[in-house]
Amino acid sequence: MHQKYKISGVHAKVPAAPHQLTDRITPIEKSIVLCHLGVPDIEADGWLLAIDGMVEKPAVFSFAQLRQFPFHAFQSFHQCAGSPLNPDHPTQRICNVIWGGALLKDILANCKVKPEARFLWSSGSDGGVFSEVTCPTYVKDLPIERIEEDVLVAYEMNGKQLLPEHGYPVRLVVPGYYGTNSVKWLNRLEFSSTRASGPFTTKWYNDTAYSADETPNGETKPVWAVAPQSIIVWPGPKATIRAGQSLSIWGWAWADGGVSQVALSTDGGSWFEAEVENQVERGWQRFSANWMPPSRGRFTILSRATGCDGVIQPLKGRRNATFSIEIEAI
Ligand SMILES: Nc1nc2c(c(=O)[nH]1)N[C@H]1C(S)=C(S)[C@@H](COP(=O)(O)O)O[C@H]1N2
Ligand SMILES: [Mo]
Q: Which of 121, 127, 305, 326 is deepest in the core (most CB within 10 A)?
């Protein structure tokens, strides 16, 4: 069937800069949007999700059938890994939203996955040309061990039905993984013994061009789990701050598995600890620390998160390099 599109070609929005991300739950109009191949025009009526590949009982679900499964909703940070054409470049394409839908493990309960299966491929209804490469469909994969966690087949975002650009009627959400893995306009889940063979898991998002992510034996690393990262919300670039007056620096930090520490630097060398709240569900974590600009003049404030696995944000050269903001004390 020929797919119609609401928007054709790459469609991306980063509507809020870090200092504008003041809400714990990011409103939809401030949330990121990234579509490589346009926004397909799909009706919930007639939409089908197929489950096949290495399963003993393939299945097909309509939208109404999908809604029969127990409903789950929880907050999760949602981050775009940045352009797959420039994977080392740090970006702050981040938001924190509430996803609602059915747990993938509930949907798969009767499918009897075969023991040879190691990866789950997920396909969207979108196809086209990205960066001069013809892509028949957008296909991603994930290791099947992750399914036992909170992978969601989502049809709500912040309590509302998904907007077309966010995957209406149904998308995958892999909490803790980079956004690229959360396939929108989801129409197929296929179990396989190998990783997916399309360009979005081989040529791009596999960090083949990304020496920083190569393992010591030269293998490439899939762009799956989100590495520790942080942004400073206050003070923002135009904030008025005064020498000799204490202020509270605050922001958000996140990582797959949560963040254990955030350190700040204001003098280009030394670090001091911020307080970090515990992670709620899969959400980002607020950090804050008091600081007094010692004199008038320009200061660069850096934030550096440490994941619960002990991994520390690098200073530069990686997609999750430390964030910095330049401010002036008057
Ligand atoms: N089918 C499909 N799913 C997709 C994409 C896409 O181009 N096609 N883009 C991915 C990328 S790179 C990101 S960052 C997230 C963005 O989700 P959002 O636009 O709802 O914020 O969707 C992911 N899922
Ligand atoms: Mo992305």
A: 305
Q: 5-222 maps to which CATH number?
A: 3.90.420.10
**CB-CB contact of 127 with 135 (8 Å):** yes
SS3 147: helix
pTM over 0.85: yes
Asked if 49 contacts 168 with a C-beta cutoff of 8 angstroms, the reply is no
Please identify, by atom number, the ligand 1 atom nearest to the C-alpha of residue 34.
19
Best of 6, 31, 35 to mutate for ligand 1, by most ligand atoms within 8 A of CB?
35
Cα of 295 to ligand 1 centre, how many Å? 45
User: At the topology level of CATH, where does 229-329 sit?
Assistant: Immunoglobulin-like (2.60.40)
Start-to-end CA distance of the chain, whole Å, equals 63
- Taking the C-alpha atoms of residue 213 and residue 228, their distance in angstroms, rounded to an integer, is 14
pLDDT above 70 as % of the chain? 96
Which residue bears the tokens 């950090």?
Answer: 287
Please say whether the beta carbons of 235 and 327 come within 8 A: yes
How far is the centre of ligand 1, averaged over its atoms, from the C-alpha of 82 (Å)? 11
Q: Can you tell me the distance from the alpha carbon of 241 to that of 325, in angstroms, rounded to the nearest whole number?
A: 13
